[in-house]
Amino acid sequence: PCSTRLLEGITTTTTTTTTTTTTTTSSSLPPAPAPVEVLLRDMYRPEDPKLLQHSDAPLYDFFMYRVQNDEDYEPKNQNMANLAGALFYLHNEIVWHVPRRFNKTRIQKFRVHSRAPQPLFEKGMNFGTRVAFDLGMCTGPFECNDWWKKYGYYVGCNNVGSFPTWQWRDTCHYEGAVWYSLPGPCPSHNFNEQSLICKGEEPGGACPEGVLPTGEGNCTYQYQLVGEISLNELSGIDTDYETFIRNGGREYNKWSDQGMHTDFWNWKLSHHVCASRVQKANELFKKKYPDDPTDVDLPSPVCDFNYHNFYG
Length: 312
Fold this sequence. Notes:
Radius of gyration: 24 Å
Distance between the termini: 42 Å
Structural class: alpha+beta
Order of helices and strands: HEEHEEHEHEEEHEEHEHHEEHH
Helix content: 10-25%
Strand content: 15-25%
C-alpha cells in the first residue's frame, strides 16, 4: 500500500510512429519517495501530545557496556549495564558455567546520549523502570507497552539489588552496579516476528543516526560503539578458552569462591576485590583505546527511577 501511494500522480503516455517511439512524463513529478525509516517514524501516534515534542529533561552523555558473544548486532531491545553492573552479571551468571553461559566472549563499550520524555521528567525521573528482553521482546516487569504508551520509549535503569532484581540485594558487592534497558522497534514481539507495521507503531527510543536525543517519545537515546575487551584478557587467560578448560582451568567455582589457574574472579563477596576488578577492566579499555574518554571523564548519571512515582 505504501508503494502504491508513492506512485500516485505519475502519468505516462507513449506515442509510436513507423520510425520512432517517444515516452513522456507529466511536467510536475511528485517528490522522491521517502526512505522507509522516515515513513515508519511518521506512523508513531502517541496519545499524549507531549511525546511529540522536545522535552525539558537534561541530555546525558555516558558509557554503557554489554556482555556479548561473537555475534554482532545493535543494542536495541537489549539490556546494558555500567561497568560494575556488567562485571556483576558476568560473576553471577556467566563465568562459573563451563563453557561460559551463552558463549559470552567479550565486553563491548558504547557511548550513549539519553534524554527523558517530558511525561517521565515531570514525574521527577530521567529513567524509567528497567525491563528485560528475550530475543528482542520485552518480558516485564508488568505489561511493558502500557508504560511506553504513557511515558514514551524511555531508557530504563535499576540499581542492581533494587526493583526489579531485589533478589541480588545481598549478593551484589559491586558498588554502584546499574543495569539498563534500551527499547527498540517492535519490542512486543521476538526479532523474527517483527513486522514493518509493528516497527512503525512501536518505534522504540533510538534516534535517527546523527540526531541527539530530543526527548520525544521515539527519540530518547543514541549510541556509538567505542570498542571491546575480551573476557580471556580480563580473566588473565593467556591461551584460547578451550585449551584453558582442557588443561584444568576454571574462571570461577561458585562453591569454592575461587578459580583454577586464574584468580581474577576470586572472592565474589569482597567489596574491595570487586572494586579492583572494575578498575582492571577500566585499565584494559584505557590501554586499548588511550585517546578515548573514560568513565571518570564521563561519569554515569544517577539511576533516579522511583517505583512509587513511576507506577503511582
